[in-house]
C-alpha cells in the first residue's frame, strides 16, 4: 500500500493498540493556507467553526467533501472531520427572532430560564445533512469520518456564561451550572445519536478543561462536572459500537485515568508547553489508551527547520508508536503560522519513520507526495534566494545549524538556519539599511 493511501482501519487499529502498515496521521484542523497550497486553489479550512462561534459559523457547511478527500489522499490522512462543538442555546432578540448566545452574557437565573434550547429542525438536521454528505462521498475511498462535539464545560465558560462568572458559580450557584451544562448535554447527546445512526467512524470529544500547569477547574470539580458528561457520551456510543476519542488543550493529564475508566480510547494532544511530558504520560498509561499529538506548534513545528521537524517526528514515533497506539498529530492543529515546508516535513517524516516494523532510520519514501512536494518547495526557495543575491531577514526560534544551540536563527540564502554568532563565521553579512540591505557575501563592502 502507498504511504499516501488513506485507510480508516489504520486509525481505528491505533485505538486498539494494533500496528498496521504505518503510524496514522490525523489532524482535525488544517487551516486554509495549507489546504489551498496543497490543492492549488482556495478551499478554506477543514473544520467548521474553527475560528470561534457566530451565527453564520453555526450553520455554515464544512469544506466541500471532494476537496477534503483530495487532501486526505495527498497526505495519507485516514479520516475527514466536521464539528458540532458549540451548543446553540438561543434567546429572542428585540427583533423577535432567535439568536444564538455567543457573548458570555447569561449571568442570572432569569436570563438562563429565558434561553431557548436546541431544536432538531434548526440544529440537528443541518448537521445530519453535512455529515451524510461526507459519509456518502467517502464510500469506496477507505477514508473514515468523525465529528468533533461535546464541549459542555467550554461552551458555557467561553460563549454563554463567561469564564470568570462560570468559575465563580461552580461554588456559589451550582444549580445554575447544572442547568446550563444539562442544556448543552441535551444537544450533544442528540448530535452523537445522529452521528452514530449515520455511521460515523468515531466520535471526537473536544472540551478544553486544561490549561498550562493543570486542570482549569482542578481535579475535584473536573470529576464532578466534566467526567460524568463524557461518560454519558461514551455510554451512548457504546450502543452503536462507535469508539470515542478526547481532545483538550492545555494539561489535563490528571484525568487520563478517569478517561480510561469510562472507556475513552484516545487522548489528544498533551501540549508540550503546558507542563505535560508525553513520554512520561506514555510510560504511565500507554498500555491503556492511545495518544495523539505533541508536535509542538509553539516550538519546533512553527520555528524549527524541516530537518528539525523530521527529527522530532522520528523521536516521537520511536518512543511512542511501538505498540501501535500513537497517532502523528500537531500539539493543536496545523495553523497558518506553521511554515508550509514544516507541515510537509511532518507528514513525510511520519510516513518514512512510521512504517512498521519501526526502524531508527529509513530512506525517504518515493511514494510520498509530501516528500516530493517538500523537495520542490525547498529547491524553488533556495534557487530564488540565490538568484536574487539578496534576502530580507527572516527569523525563527530553533536549532542553530552552526553551534547546535536553540536560539533565534536567521534563514540564509544558502538555506541554512544560523544564529547571530554563527552566520558571520559562515561568510555572510546582514545589511540593515540602505539600497544594499539584505544578505550579502562577506566580501561585500558596506559604504
Task: Give an overview in words.
By secondary structure, this protein is α/β, with parallel strands linked by helices. The chain has two domains: 8-381, Alpha-Beta Barrel (TIM Barrel); 390-441, no CATH class. It is 42% helix and 13% strand. The chain contains 17 helices and 16 strands. The strands form five sheets. The protein has a seven-stranded parallel β-sheet, with helices on both faces. It has a three-stranded antiparallel β-sheet with strand order 12-13-14. Helix 9 runs parallel beside helix 11 (227-238). The relative contact order is 0.10. Residues 385-392 have low confidence and may be disordered.
What is the gist of this entry?
The protein is about 40% helix and about 15% strand.
Q: Quote the average pLDDT.
A: 91
Number of strands: 16
Helix content: 40-55%
CATH topology of the largest domain: TIM Barrel
Work out the helix count.
Answer: 17
Largest sheet properties: 7 strands, parallel
What would you call the structural class? alpha/beta
Radius of gyration: 24 Å
For the termini, the CA-CA separation is 60 Å
What's the CATH first level of the largest domain?
Alpha Beta
Physical arrangement of strands within the biggest beta sheet: 1-4-5-8-9-10-11
Spatial shape: globular
* Unreliable runs: 385-392
Quaternary status: single chain
In percent, how much strand structure appears in the residues? 5-15%
CATH architectural grouping of the largest domain = Alpha-Beta Barrel
For the record, the count of structural domains works out to 2
Amino acid at each position: 500500500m502507498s504511504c499516501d493511501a488513506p485507510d480508516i482501519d489504520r486509525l481505528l487499529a491505533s485505538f486498539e493498540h494494533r500496528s498496521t502498515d504505518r503510524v496514522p496521521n490525523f489532524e482535525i484542523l488544517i487551516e486554509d493556507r495549507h489546504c489551498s497550497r496543497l490543492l492549488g486553489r482556495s478551499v478554506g479550512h477543514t473544520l467548521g467553526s474553527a475560528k470561534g462561534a457566530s451565527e453564520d459559523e453555526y450553520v455554515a457547511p464544512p469544506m466541500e467533501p471532494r476537496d477534503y478527500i483530495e487532501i486526505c489522499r495527498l497526505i495519507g490522512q485516514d479520516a475527514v472531520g466536521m464539528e458540532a462543538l458549540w451548543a446553540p442555546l438561543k434567546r429572542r432578540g428585540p427583533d423577535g427572532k432567535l439568536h444564538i448566545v455567543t457573548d458570555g452574557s447569561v449571568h442570572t437565573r432569569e436570563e438562563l430560564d429565558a434561553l431557548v434550547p436546541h431544536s432538531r429542525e434548526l440544529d440537528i438536521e443541518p448537521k445530519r445533512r453535512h455529515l451524510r454528505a461526507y459519509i456518502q462521498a467517502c464510500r469506496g475511498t477507505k477514508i473514515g469520518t468523525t465529528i468533533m462535539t461535546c464541549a459542555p464545560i467550554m461552551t458555557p465558560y467561553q460563549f454563554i456564561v463567561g469564564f470568570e462568572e462560570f468559575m465563580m458559580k461552580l461554588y456559589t450557584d451550582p444549580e445554575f451550572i447544572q442547568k446550563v451544562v444539562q442544556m448543552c448535554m441535551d444537544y450533544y447527546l442528540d448530535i452523537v445519536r445522529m452521528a452514530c445512526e449515520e455511521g460515523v467512524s468515531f466520535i471526537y470529544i473536544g472540551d478544553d478543561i486544561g490549561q498550562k500547569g493543570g486542570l482549569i477547574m482542578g481535579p475535584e470539580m473536573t470529576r464532578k462536572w466534566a467526567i460524568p458528561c463524557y461518560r454519558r457520551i461514551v455510554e451512548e456510543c457504546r450502543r452503536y459500537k462507535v469508539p470515542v476519542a478526547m481532545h483538550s488543550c492545555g494539561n489535563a493529564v490528571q484525568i487520563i485515568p478517569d478517561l480510561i475508566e469510562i472507556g475513552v480510547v484516545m487522548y489528544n494532544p498533551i501540549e508540550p508547553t503546558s507542563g505535560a511530558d508525553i513520554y512520561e504520560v506514555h510510560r504511565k498509561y500507554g498500555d491503556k489508551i492511545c495518544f495523539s499529538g505533541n508536535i509542538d506548534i509553539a516550538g519546533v513545528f512553527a520555528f524549527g527547520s524541516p530537518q528539525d521537524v523530521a527529527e522530532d517526528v522520528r523521536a516521537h514515533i520511536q518512543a511512542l508508536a511501538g505498540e501501535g497506539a500513537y497517532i502523528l498529530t500537531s500539539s493543536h492543529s496545523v495553523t497558518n503560522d506553521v511554515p508550509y515546508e514544516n507541515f510537509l516535513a511532518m507528514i513525510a517524516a511520519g510516513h518514512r519513520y512510521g512504517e512498521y516494523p519501526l526502524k531508527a532510520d529509513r530512506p525517504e519514501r518515493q511514494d510520498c507526495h509530501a516528500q516530493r512536494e517538500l523537495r520542490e518547495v525547498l529547491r524553488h526557495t533556495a534557487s530564488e534566494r540565490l538568484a536574487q543575491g539578496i534576502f530580507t531577514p527572516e527569523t525563527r526560534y530553533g536549532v542553530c545549524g552552526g553551534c547546535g544551540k536553540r536560539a533565534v536563527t536567521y534563514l540564509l540564502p544558502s538555506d541554512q538556519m544560523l544564529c547571530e554568532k554563527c552566520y558571520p563565521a559562515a561568510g555572510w553579512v546582514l545589511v540593515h539599511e540602505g539600497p544594499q540591505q539584505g544578505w550579502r557575501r562577506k566580501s561585500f563592502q558596506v559604504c
